[in-house]
Fold this sequence. Notes:
Number of strands: 10
Helix content: 10-25%
Oligomer: single chain
Order of helices and strands: HHEEEEEEEEEE
Shape: globular
Amino acid sequence: MLSTLLGLLLVAQAAGPLAAAERFFVGRTEGQGTVHVMLSGRHAVRDRTRGRIAADGALVLDQIVEEQGKPARRRTWRLVRAGGNCITGSISDVSGDVRGEVQGNVLHLRYRLAEGASVEQWITLHPNGRTAANRMRFRRFGLNVATVEETIRRVD
């Protein structure tokens, strides 16, 4: 417990604008929302995530995603500061690197799924520090093929 608190203090001092996002995702969070797929309609999505700060300062998220009509899947995120407001990292089901930036209370990420869709994601932290809005846009061949609107809340 003490080592986690010390790690958070060190990260908060070093990370600058990302400190609020890191603090939000350290511990347990749950998300619930809607996926809208072009020509297929809407369905529910839910995720459960446990986050921690690794020894090297990376934010590591272990996540279970449950999308209506599909089997649950596990994802692991690893996000690190790449200088200034820039973020880089990886997600277990992503082809290539995750890239992004922090602008105020918004974490903006871009990456490509292994299936080929490019993803643009905006996570906006609410002033209460307990919830965030997650908005995602999936594109293939230059067309928007799906969107996700989700609310993420801290569990602990």
